[in-house]
Amino acid sequence: MALFRIFANGLLMDMANITFLNIILAGTGLISLLFFVYAAIISKLEGERRASIVFLWIAIAIGFVFPSIVFINHPAINVISVILMVAIASLVLVYIIPVRAKIGLSKIVPIGKIDERDIMFSRNELESDSDNYKDYYQSNPQRKSVDDKIKDNPGLLNANSGNYDKIMFSSSRASFFTIDALKSKVNGDVCASETKVNPADITCYIKKWAKKLGALDVGITELKDYHIYSHRGRKGNYGKKVELNHKYAIAFTVEMDMYAVRSGPLAPIVMESAQQYLESGAIAVQLAEFIRQLGYPARAHIDGNYEVVCPLVAKDAGLGEIGRMGLLMTPNLGPRVRIAVVTTDLPLNVDKPTNEPSIIDFCTTCKKCAINCPSNAISYNDREEINGVVRWQINQESCFDFWTKSGTDCGRCMSVCPYSHPDNLLHNIVRFGIKNSSIFGRLAVYFDDAIYGKNPTVKNPADWMNIG
């Protein structure tokens, strides 16, 4: 009992010496401890082992340091308390005070239209003994040697490719087979009687219905000339001049599964890409047919049957910005989406472009996609003016060369992108800070590297996929 009284008296004396600063620190320490335990649990559930361990060690450190500061009575502790409090206060101020670097958001108005015949999918489909092959390389001789080398690679979903998997590649082919069945349904007859609609009401209905069908985000823009390909480049339509005179474009995204994307460039990534191209295509075909039933022309633009450049349409429809990797960067999932578009004359209310400088600012600093790109196709440099637009441009030949060797569409860039983390409280806290402050955005790059690694490991396919 005597020892207990001595301990109790000593504890009471220590508590009497606790300052107001220490009380604040104790509260801050408790909140921080709970947050990092939560972060460790969420990371564990997300399959991010390294992040879970890092967060857990931070929680343990907080659990040790903060009580020591509060209860140990030593002159040096007061100094440490002040330093710690200043550091915490500084971080909080950086997080909450709006500080935005001046980033020039170029209006995406290219000089001229993009010709679909120039994209790698179209060039790779050209048969060496065809007139189209001869005509194309007569006009573009500088591309011939590179393209011929790429044609010598095994190819996407090929049995001789580096990441061949019979089961998953067959699943991918099944999805692309079904997409092919939808291609003939992108257009159709328009009902003779036109249904009068209120633009605001029908816009609201279409957005909500599209989300019910599986869309993640939906936006609407006026269709611009630079949204439209000048000529078609894919099989069955090669060389056709695009005549598309619709007034509006409905763009929407669908989410790609986080676990499949993180396995890129292994087989699950192409399996997931095919599935989400199918999902987005099915939604687009339904929306277009619905609009035609109302008496207005409408066309769905789906994988392999586009007449518009989907990322440009989606950007103008308010769904995101075009990032360093050349993909649409959405505010909540980054590039981890697929896009489809429906063009129409149905009267609709348009959305404003995103005009979100924080995304461009973050991409300028981050460069994680470039660091991890296995084909070195992504530029480390700042944006530059290309065809009248200030943007980044990937080396599509290097990118596609890797695809045709790997057998998949890689996805490594979207896998490592910090914006690709799940849309939940933990990551949205960070996203708010990035949007609010350029300074915090720069810190977030280093935080992400420290927590997840500058070169995150490629995740293995889910167990249920490994049956072959």
Mind explaining what this structure looks like?
By secondary structure, this protein is of the alpha+beta class. 51% of the residues lie in helices and 8% in strands. The protein contains 18 helices and eight strands. The chain has helices spanning 2-16, 20-45, 49-71, 75-96, 120-125, 131-139, 144-151, 166-183, 199-213, 258-261, 267-293, 310-316, 357-366, 368-372, 396-406, 412-416, 425-436, 438-452, and strands at residues 217-222, 248-255, 298-301, 321-322, 328-329, 337-344, 384-386, 389-391. The protein has a four-stranded antiparallel beta sheet with strand order 1-2-6-3, sandwiched between helices. Helix 2 (20-45) packs antiparallel against helix 3. The longest helix is centred in the middle third of the chain and has 27 residues, at 267-293. Mean pLDDT is 91; it is low at 6-17.
